[in-house]
Design brief:
Helix content: 25-40%
Order of helices and strands: EEEEHEEEHEHEEEEEHHHEHEH
Number of helices: 8
CATH class of the largest domain: Alpha Beta
Distance between the termini: 14 Å
CATH topology of the largest domain: Nucleotidyltransferase, domain 5
Radius of gyration: 17 Å
Bound molecules: beta-D-glucopyranose
Number of domains: 2
């Protein structure tokens, strides 16, 4: 059995667990710590190190980050401190985790990989978009099972505003939107994805996906619309799987 520690760094929480990368199963209960505020490089890396120490982890680690990562360097940081921009994220996290080798991917890309490998997208060769609804909106686009990394479709404009500032789950919570009010915003957003990319399948992930019965039935999209099967663990699993391929 290959076991890798997955650490999912989000705008609200940082969570990790050892993952059996052949089955995608967590082999110990996940450990979650709130994302420090401000979410600076030192503060976030410190928490990632705490997660690794919680599991006495010294082997390979896969991590996620909520921003664009190109050639191992963070290029955007919308929901974390701007001092991340320009950082060599793998080496910063490796130093914080006692020197373990670390591989890092965008959080939504990692979640998408997990769903394509073990969840709602398994076996799909057509166009699939995974959308993660949390502090922001993340996206992962797959064509014939291949990921187009860093798509950042939560940054698309809607009514003169960045889509994630209208339709992320954090906006629903902050503004006390009803499921119906939020679903209206979400449907407009998913309609934009339908028109831009003509996906065959849209997978809805993020923490709120465990309450999918509250809002998925209110949404109508051209693409088939399904909840993520790994729910909010997809980031951890995808991070771990990415580190071993
Ligand atoms: C970031 C994305 C991330 C998404 C979900 C956005 O604000 O720009 O990179 O995937 O939030 O965390």
């Amino acid at each position: 059995m290959t076991t890798t520690l997955g650490i999912d760094i989000g705008g609200t929480g940082i969570k990790g667990a050892p993952v059996d990368t052949a089955t995608g199963e967590l082999i110990a209960p996940r450990h979650r710590i709130l994302t420090p505020d401000p979410a600076t490089v030192d503060a976030v890396a410190g928490v990632a190190g705490e997660v690794a120490r919680h599991f006495d982890w010294t082997a390979a680690i896969g991590a996620t980050f909520p921003g664009v990562i190109a050639d191992g360097v963070i290029r955007t940081a919308v929901n974390v401190d701007k001092d991340w921009i320009g950082t060599d994220v793998a080496s910063v996290l490796s130093d914080a985790c006692g020197g373990s080798p670390v591989t890092v991917r965008n959080d939504a890309d990692a979640a998408g990989i997990a769903e394509m490998t073990f969840g709602a997208g398994r076996g799909r060769t057509d166009t699939v978009i995974m959308v993660t609804l949390g502090t922001g909106i993340g996206s992962a686009v797959f064509v014939d099972g291949h990921l187009v990394p860093n798509t950042e479709l939560g940054g698309l404009p809607i009514r003169g505003k960045v889509a994630e500032k209208r339709a992320a789950d954090s906006v629903r919570e902050r503004d006390g939107l009803s499921w119906k009010q939020w679903a209206k915003r979400l449907e407009e957003y998913l309609g934009l994805l339908d028109d831009l990319l003509w996906p065959d399948l849209i997978i809805i992930g993020g923490g709120v996906s465990k309450k999918h019965d509250k809002f998925l039935p209110l949404l109508s999209t051209r693409a088939e619309l399904v909840p993520a099967q790994l729910l909010n663990e997809a980031g951890i699993v995808g991070a771990a799987v990415s580190a071993t391929v």
